[in-house]
Write a structure and sequence with these properties.
Elements: H1 12-24, H2 29-38, H3 41-68
Helix pairs in contact: 1-3
């Protein structure tokens, strides 16, 4: 009865890579299935928040650059 929960073995860097590609919507089915089996859901949430913050920051920089010209 002492079953250990399934350990997710992907690193945070692998999670960031998967989230980066998901922002573009480009992912092979094989890679998606591998991600679903190996990525830690908490890492995915954190990486998604970091990715969204970076995206918003880049948009703000682009707007400031365009307005200053």
């Amino acid at each position: 009865m002492d079953e250990k929960p399934h350990q997710r073995k992907a690193s945070f860097l692998a999670t960031m890579k998967a989230v980066f590609w998901s922002f573009f919507g480009v992912r092979k089915r094989r890679d998606y299935e591998s991600d679903a089996a190996n990525l830690n859901p908490v890492h995915v949430i954190i990486a998604g928040l970091i990715g969204a913050a970076l995206f918003i920051g880049l948009l703000l920089l682009a707007v400031r650059f365009a307005v200053s010209q």
